[in-house]
């Protein structure tokens, strides 16, 4: 790659760390199709992973605290998934997404069946430790913070909840079958339903999907990821915003939003999604109703 192109890419990224990145990492990062992860060839060694955590911090959206946290989830494939905290104005503080959640959700949205290690720039808070218990074999998950490694069992010696059996954790559970009630009126509807069907909703049994479309025609899907303790659960809208934020399209304007939910859902976050999106863009959230196939 020509040096002048690298220099131009670095200056145009809006990421302070870009000047310090190796050319091969930068080349991946500046591709329009970048979706927030690096292939295993870039992150086999510890120094490369440490550098990617510093990069992940740059993706943080922190209008309230100004406190950037970066995370990196190493998937079973060996690929490294970025994670960064997100805060939202105009809604309660607990609407925020933590970097550890962001990285694990990023790995999940890319189809990773397991996370084999988690790197974080700060020690995980109690909320994140609780969220991570949704992974199968969570207690053995190595968590590395500034060169010190512990597993989740050490950080969470008296866990709340029960272990997720193999095939029933956040990353490895099977899709649920949902069908829509109203006639299909476009691809966006089907995308939202597809996203919902891959939800992790073992506690409410109320899957939901969310699709963000950008003005340049890109789509970002989100789905709900629940926690046994309820509060650390991540709604579909937040998952979709996370995937957009970690991608090369994070600064592109949003043109439409679609949410799919069960008509009979005990819990649903349409009002929350609308409040959240109102603070981000002036685009209404279209709601699609589904019914369970069972
Ligand atoms: Zn946290």
From TrEMBL:
Entry's Gene Ontology molecular function annotations: cytidine deaminase activity; identical protein binding; zinc ion binding
GO biological process, one term: nucleobase-containing small molecule metabolic process
CC per GO annotation: cytosol
Protein's UniProt keywords contain Glycosyltransferase: no
CDD domains reported in the protein's UniProt record: cytidine_deaminase
Keywords linked to the UniProt accession: Hydrolase, Metal-binding, Zinc
Domain named CMP/dCMP-type deaminase: residues: 44-163, 183-294
Tree of life domain: Bacteria
UniProt key word Transmembrane: no
PROSITE patterns on file: CYT_DCMP_DEAMINASES_1, CYT_DCMP_DEAMINASES_2
SUPFAM superfamilies assigned to the protein according to its UniProt record, in alphabetical order: Cytidine deaminase-like
PANTHER family (alphabetical): CYTIDINE DEAMINASE
Family: Belongs to the cytidine and deoxycytidylate deaminase family.
Subunit-level organization: Homodimer.
Identification of the protein by name: Cytidine deaminase
Native source species: Coraliomargarita sinensis
């Amino acid at each position: 790659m020509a040096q002048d192109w690298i220099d131009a890419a670095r200056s145009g990224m809006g990421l302070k760390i870009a000047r310090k990145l190796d050319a091969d990492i930068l080349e991946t990062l500046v591709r329009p199709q970048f979706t927030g992860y690096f292939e295993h060839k870039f992150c086999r060694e510890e120094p490369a992973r440490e550098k990617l955590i510093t990069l992940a911090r740059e993706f943080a959206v922190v209008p309230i605290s100004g406190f950037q946290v970066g995370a990196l989830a190493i998937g079973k494939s060996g690929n490294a998934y970025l994670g960064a905290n997100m805060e939202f104005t105009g809604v309660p503080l607990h609407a925020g997404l933590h970097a550890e959640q962001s990285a694990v959700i990023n790995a999940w949205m890319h189809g990773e069946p397991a996370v084999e290690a988690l790197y974080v720039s700060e020690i995980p808070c109690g909320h994140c430790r609780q969220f991570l218990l949704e992974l199968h074999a969570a207690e053995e998950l190595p968590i590395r913070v500034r060169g010190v490694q512990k597993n989740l069992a050490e950080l969470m010696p008296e866990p709340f909840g029960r272990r997720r059996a193999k095939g029933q954790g956040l990353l490895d559970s099977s899709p649920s079958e949902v069908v829509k009630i109203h006639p299909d009126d476009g691809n966006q509807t089907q995308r939202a339903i597809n996203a919902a069907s891959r939800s992790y909703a073992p506690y409410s049994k109320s899957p939901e999907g969310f699709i963000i479309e950008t003005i340049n025609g890109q789509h970002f899907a989100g789905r709900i990821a629940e926690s046994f303790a309820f509060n650390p659960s991540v709604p579909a809208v937040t998952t979709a915003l996370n995937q957009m934020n970690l991608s090369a399209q994070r600064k592109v304007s949003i043109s439409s939003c679609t949410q799919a939910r069960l008509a009979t859902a005990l819990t649903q976050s349409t009002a929350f999604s609308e409040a959240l999106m109102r603070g981000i863009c002036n685009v209404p959230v279209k709601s699609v109703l589904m019914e369970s196939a069972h």
